[in-house]
Amino acid sequence: MKTPTLYTVLSPSLLNLYEVNNTIVVVIDILRATSTIATVLYNGGRAVIPVDSVERCIQLGKELECITAGERDGQIAPGLQYGNSSFEYPREFVENKILVLTTTNGTRLLHMALAKGAKEIITGSFLNLSSVCEHLVEMKKNVILACAGWKDKVNLEDTLFAGAVVDKVKDHFSINCDSSHMAQNLYNGARSDLYDFMKRNNASHYQRLTNYGLEKDIKHCLTPDLANVLPEYINGKLIHLNHQ
Amino acid sequence: MKTPTLYTVLSPSLLNLYEVNNTIVVVIDILRATSTIATVLYNGGRAVIPVDSVERCIQLGKELECITAGERDGQIAPGLQYGNSSFEYPREFVENKILVLTTTNGTRLLHMALAKGAKEIITGSFLNLSSVCEHLVEMKKNVILACAGWKDKVNLEDTLFAGAVVDKVKDHFSINCDSSHMAQNLYNGARSDLYDFMKRNNASHYQRLTNYGLEKDIKHCLTPDLANVLPEYINGKLIHLNHQ
């Protein structure tokens, strides 16, 4: 059997260079959409519905009587109830609930992957790193690790996560992709203390969020396997497959 | 005085996200356009005229009675005289001559930067690393390190060079750019043996060129300061400023 391929796409602007059709796309938006998604589903949330605008978020929230959440430029968007921090979503709050989420970068990328015919879309974060890797190895399909970045610019934390995945699954894939090797090298140089690496390298997102006092949030989002679920996008919703 | 900014753009597809106007753009195409340009000018060539098509290259070659050179997919393009290897351009061959060069990625990026209103365009390669860095520090202007990549995909060697520049000039610039920090980290992990790093990481360009038996060429293109000139794009030609 042919070894499946793996590519890392460092920015949504580069997705059109890759064959998305028939591929598993892992959407990566570490700070903080895909970390929040993992947390909500891990804590028993029924589904996260990603939408691309605040207006749509408010509208769906009313229709489905569910939690509305989302940020613009790192702050709770006007008209929505909650933000994009894992700490806002403990089990006692989200269990059996549906959350409608709009974010600056992650949601848009998910919809791009969908439009380009991805076979399967899952979301990845350090919080569910092992679940993602085990799934990719098991599926034996071509994979694209798609980093959301920040307004189409490449960012450190999404690249670091892609590198962590490459590091774990590389023996199971044919990786003819410089971005993947770059990400893996970056991750291996940073893995002993990802938070310190972000800080030392003056990551743009680190600055953006610490301006809002969110150091604790960043540390949480860089910790592996605190919410080991597999959020998969099915019929417009992200659900944890094993809960079906 | 305000500290000038420095950004690294990992692919031509991302250039539109940056403010190019009034900026010094360093075009980077290590394997091998910008290495060849440095070599030709270092060895006394009068100018290198970068063009974006083989047809234009042939036409200009006739008009100006000069050397035509260029490759498509790593081989000398049909109708042209020479390829894209530094070893083809010793002093006894190129001194006082003009070379018209068309390449797969570098020329296109140069024309993009020009169209977007760059204040100054220079070309960078390991062969002229120090000249580029000294110039950037001296000019005290905003800088974009623009990697040509391979058909818009990010590649290792152009990123490594951007990292080498960042490493050398970082104290003179305000660098709020994750791609620059990534490149610098990558370079610092690789600098002890860049060739070995390319080989170990299975760089896509490494494979492409070693298929044509060009290991020696790759090693040459990864060696700092073998051709320390400053190629600047002026009125359609790349010339070595200190020769004016």
The number of strands of chain A is: 10
Globally, the shape of chain A reads globular
Largest interface: A-B, 30 and 30 residues
Tally the helices of chain A: 10
Q: Uncertain runs of chain A with pLDDT below 50, 5 residues or more?
A: none
Strand/helix succession of chain A: EEHEHEEHEHEHEHHHHHEE
Assembly annotation: homodimer
Major sheet characteristics of chain A: 4 strands, parallel
Over the alpha carbons, how many angstroms does the gyration radius of chain A reach? 17 Å
Strand content of chain A: 15-25%
Please list the strands of the largest sheet of chain A in the order they lie side by side.
1-8-2-7
C-alpha end-to-end distance of chain A = 30 Å
* Helix/strand/pairing category of chain A: alpha/beta
Mean pLDDT of chain A: 92
Helix content of chain A: 25-40%
Describe this structure in words.
Two copies of one chain form a homodimer. The first copy, chain A, has ten helices and ten strands. The mean pLDDT of chain A is 92. Chain A is an alpha/beta fold. In chain A, helix 5 packs across helix 6 and helix 6 packs across helix 7. In chain A, strand 9 and strand 10 form a beta hairpin. The longest helix of chain A has 14 residues. Chains A and B meet through helix 7 and helix 9 of A and helix 7 and helix 9 of B.
Topology (SSEs and partners):
Two copies of one chain form a homodimer.
Chain A: E1 6-9, E2 24-28, H1 33-42, E3 47-51, H2 54-64, E4 67-72, E5 75-76, H3 91-94, E6 98-102, H4 106-115, E7 120-124, H5 129-139, E8 143-147, H6 156-169, H7 178-190, H8 194-200, H9 204-210, H10 215-221, E9 231-234, E10 237-240
Parallel strand pairs in A: 1-8, 2-7, 2-8, 3-6, 4-6
Antiparallel strand pairs in A: 4-5, 9-10
